[in-house]
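User: Structure tokens for this complex, please. No commentary.
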Amino acid sequence: MHSRPPGKIGQPVIRVDQLGIAYETRQGLVHAVREVSFEIHRGETLGLVGESGCGKSTVAYGLVNYLGRNGRIVRGEIQFQGQSLVGRSEEELRRLRGDQISMVFQDPMTSLNPVMPVGEQMAEVLTVHRAMPKDEARTRCLEMLRRVYMPDPAKVLERYPHQISGGQQQRVVIAMALLNNPALLVMDEPTTALDVTVEAAVLDLIADLRRDFDTAILFISHNLGVIARVSNRVGVMYAGELVELAAVDELFADPRHPYTQGLLRCLPRLGRSKASSLLHPIRGRVPAPDRLPPGCVFEPRCDYARQACRAERPALRALRPGHHTRCLFSDEIDAAAWAPPADEGRPAVADSRPAAAGGDPPAPILNVAGLKTYYRHPSASPLGVLGLGQTDYVKAVDNVSFAVPKGRTLGIVGESGCGKSTLIKTLIGLESPSGGRADFIGFDINRRVSQRDLAIIRELQMVFQNPDATMNPSYTVGQQIERPLRRFKIVPPAQVHAEVVRLLRAVKLDEHYYDRFPRQLSGGEKQRIGIARAFAGRPDLVLCDEPVSALDVSVQAAVLNLLMEIQREQNTTMLFISHDLSVVRFLSDDVAVMYLGQIVEIGPAEAIYAPPYHPYTESLLAAVPIPDPTVEQEPIRLEGSVPSPLHPPSGCRFHTRCPRRNLLPAGGQICETTEPPWQEAGGGHRLYCHIPLETLRGLAPVVKAQA
Amino acid sequence: MLVKDYMTRHPILIEPRKHVTDAQRVMTEAGIRHLPVVGDGKRLLGLVTRQRLAIQPHQLASLDVWEITRYLADLTVADVMVKGPDLHTISPDATLEEAADVMIRHKISGLPVVEAPGNIVVGILTETDLLIELQDLLGAVDAGWRVVMRVPDRPGEFRKLVRAIGDKGWGIMAMGSVRTPKDPKHWDLILKVRWCGREELLDVLRGIPDQEIVDLRETRPPAAGPAAG
Ligand SMILES: Nc1ncnc2c1ncn2[C@@H]1O[C@H](COP(=O)(O)OP(=O)(O)OP(=O)(O)O)[C@@H](O)[C@H]1O
Ligand code: SF4
Ligand code: SF4
Ligand SMILES: [Mg+2]
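Assistant:
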């Protein structure tokens, strides 16, 4: 009913003009952010996206002069509510941060005091600053916790931060940030540490709050899907500069800067299957701020670069009202006409499943039946200490069964704490199973790695999330890869060097890397070495635990392509864990969905991503942030977080959060008492739920692309 | 139609120690006429208005150009702001009528919106916001027929009119009533009707006994407003 158009009226809350920020380092002044300009109005969210090190956080901290001892604003102007922030006294800025600007960071614990109950620290914002009476403050805090959809807010007030989940901590921080009704809210990767289901709920919350409180929000994320979901306008940062700025729909539908176009091309999409696509990574990597190319900063990686691009640094200019780009040729570049450069790699490869319809699938190479991995939990009761009480077990993996045929990739998805990593650790022999059976090419692998045959160790390799953890910093790259070659006697000693070089080439690194040390490598390069090492012994089975989640999207694309390529060449079998459902879709032939230590759905990838879904799979798909603002997803949101695996819920473990149990008689009472049956949906697709398949088949797909 | 739905949230604020020239610049650049003055925690201390920034004529006569400049340079926001009993405010939960009443009684054009306890500034409400409400109230933002009917001051007239239109299945999107100026025995009812043609609407209105059509015209949304659905 309100006729006033949102935002845009009057002055922006914040206006940043030609901002330059530099850090004092031993090498001299490093200009981490250059010529950044934007404004944000009331009730508007500006998303800032870009790869690691592009200066997003520096901009955020620069706004409130949180730059640390060695950082400072060297150029430009920041106007907040019509008044300049540059050159204000520390005291004035402190007041502003308390009263009118709030910040939310990736790790909620940076904003929470671990030794103070949540209620007390929230109330402090009001009692100390505003001299509000204690009980009034408490009422306000309670109200605000309700406002951020906190379950059981009164109890949460009494708890200490470590007694609530990560998603709840982040809600507390957001509630606290809003207590002062700030005009500007700066959020730096506020959902990056959260599970997709929790992230989705927090993003909904942020959108609601912007509307209801008319707050101007600067929202920073490296995730284009998240940015697409929360922003009104988006700024893309590259190497310290804003290279494109446009309304969210326009940016995704018609990106005009080659970097933005490249970013969008290297994302795996939910709709793209393993058979249909190759990702297109952007070649090269982001230059360090002290080693910028002379002209356009993107020139060394740009497919459209020409002489003019090397001669001058383009300025950010308006292509049309509201759409700005920092490219000389934005008007003529046609993203639709883009074709991958000839040297990028092979075209899409055929489906890797050797046995198509009709034929027998190859025999399973890995057979897991009823596998259990329990961790002993020190019992809280005094009897436990005496060894008399019942011992509690964390049932991290509980009765898991599946088989993987040779040459196929099984993707495993689920929220954090659902047991994905424990499952893989058990298979590789880092944990001992408490029950069940796992055999791999006929060998029982129920033993710890220290008791396993060398032959099995060789055939079973692993790629880790954090390549640093597994690399000896004092060995060169060459030495790291040589080790498995010698140990497993893959090639005669005289050929080891040549084999290392071959492997380096296979992961798209040249010979020069042989003598480099890990510290001289970027994250993506380290992960390639990790892959080269894992595949060095030509193992039959490679287990990957979140191998790309620490990488930037352009690097992630290259690593994913690489994994897929080597796997196909060597016909390796893979188990691939990821929290990212788009990545899993891209890489996997089959997918297993885990919840609280159990597999709840398993089958061919295309079957998992279409109805009938297990209700948990459905909720995951509804939550995935999709980098396309025109795609609609069913508004299905999970309440709360994963229950403790110490005392998993009875019956179906998902019953405490299941949004679909009301499809069953009596609101799904049976789910609380009785374990669901495995239902066969055909083609090897099975799901673990009481709801009849017919009903599940009738539900709409959760992800709808706009026609 | 409460103050909190129509106020501008997060108004530009200023601190009392700032120079008057700062206030002047902020107000000119932002095009605003009211600048709430706040202390720690956004507590309201006063209000700077355009009038308060103008130099009073009696001072003007006694100062030369240089003195004026110096006089201005020394002046702080605290020196010129409206404060004490002259400072009027409104609560975010008050109705717009209440706000309008305060503004009319004290002949002021804007009110800081403050929250108790602590008088925390949460918004500002100005004449413009009230005009926006009036515009909304009269349905000016959507296309349709604007009808004014003069009806006798007695029960049941309102219902007659609404029913006549409702029976046809047409939509009433806005409605208001005022006592007819200079005629205490009648009320003027204004309403905005849509989904019908002019002639059929006239037919229906003419058929209502004891009611007189004062005015009927087609209205379109103002150019800047959102497009009609
Ligand atoms: N305190 C510091 N001293 C020196 N250089 C710094 C400092 N903080 C950041 N930098 C450099 O400034 C550049 C921008 O870093 P910034 O943290 O702003 O990037 P970002 O876009 O937020 O990255 P991420 O996505 O990894 O959070 C990087 O090259 C970084 O190494
Ligand atoms: S200016 Fe040249 S190098 Fe830079 S993005 Fe545009 S085309 Fe590429
Ligand atoms: S068994 Fe019941 S609680 Fe479990 S997923 Fe199915 S409907 Fe939901
Ligand atoms: Mg950052």
